[in-house]
Design goal:
7 helices, alpha/beta, Rossmann fold, 7-stranded mixed β-sheet
Length: about 220
């Protein structure tokens, strides 16, 4: 099983971490891409530790970056098989980071962009202890046909997607929200008019607010 690692940011307030936020990058990027969200979200969670692991494999669709799994074959069955194969590596990393920080599973939040969103939803909803929250940006819910029988927890989920996304169509999030709601998962959605495949300030602010709610942190 691949050993994951990536850039980290310690609690803004100093001292021991009280929460752990794991940021999962998209295809062709690496951990340095999403760790940039940490300083902004640390304003909302000053006692949180942040980590953005690099995906385990070199990207097979370009000359740089990493991938969680191959998207050469985008059939639902192939993508489901690919994400199942890599999920244990991420689950092991999450467990190891929580243990390193001396935190329970309930102190975890997952945030992912694009392919990282797919990983966050797949792994987060199958953890024995529910994460405090899952934040998914511009992604999709893979292996949705088996979710009802595999769902292990129901953390609150925020899904954010640009309505002008030409990489992952916004319909993927609309479908994910419907499937999750039907499974009893509390879902908040934010659709951004004119936004392509990316995260804008409104999406970042929505993520900060979701993290504060999840961890019971009062703005101040």
């Amino acid at each position: 099983m691949a050993t994951l690692d990536g850039p980290r940011l310690g609690p803004r307030a100093g001292g021991a971490a009280q929460q752990l936020v794991v940021l999962l990058h998209g295809l062709g990027a690496d951990g340095t891409d999403l760790i940039g969200l940490a300083p902004e979200w640390a304003e909302a969670l000053p006692h949180a530790a942040f980590v953005a692991p690099d995906a385990p494999s070199p990207c097979d669709m370009g000359p740089w970056g990493r991938q969680w799994f191959s998207l050469q074959d985008r059939s639902p069955a192939r993508m489901a098989a690919e994400i199942r194969a890599v999920a244990p590596a991420l689950q092991g990393f999450l467990d190891a980071e929580l243990a390193r920080l001396g935190l329970p599973g309930s102190a975890l939040a997952l945030a992912g962009f694009s392919q990282g969103c797919m990983m966050a939803l797949f792994c987060g909803l199958r953890r024995a202890t529910a994460p405090a929250a899952i934040l998914g940006y511009s992604g999709a819910l893979l292996a949705s046909e088996s979710l009802a029988e595999e769902l292990a927890c129901r953390p609150p989920v925020l899904l954010v997607h640009g309505e002008a996304d030409e990489v992952v169509p916004v319909e993927a999030t609309r479908s994910a929200a419907a499937t999750l709601t039907a499974a009893g998962v509390a879902v908040e959605t934010l659709y951004r008019p004119g936004l392509a495949h990316g995260i804008d300030p409104a999406g970042i602010a929505a993520g900060a607010a979701a993290l504060r709610r999840a961890f019971g942190v009062t703005p101040g």
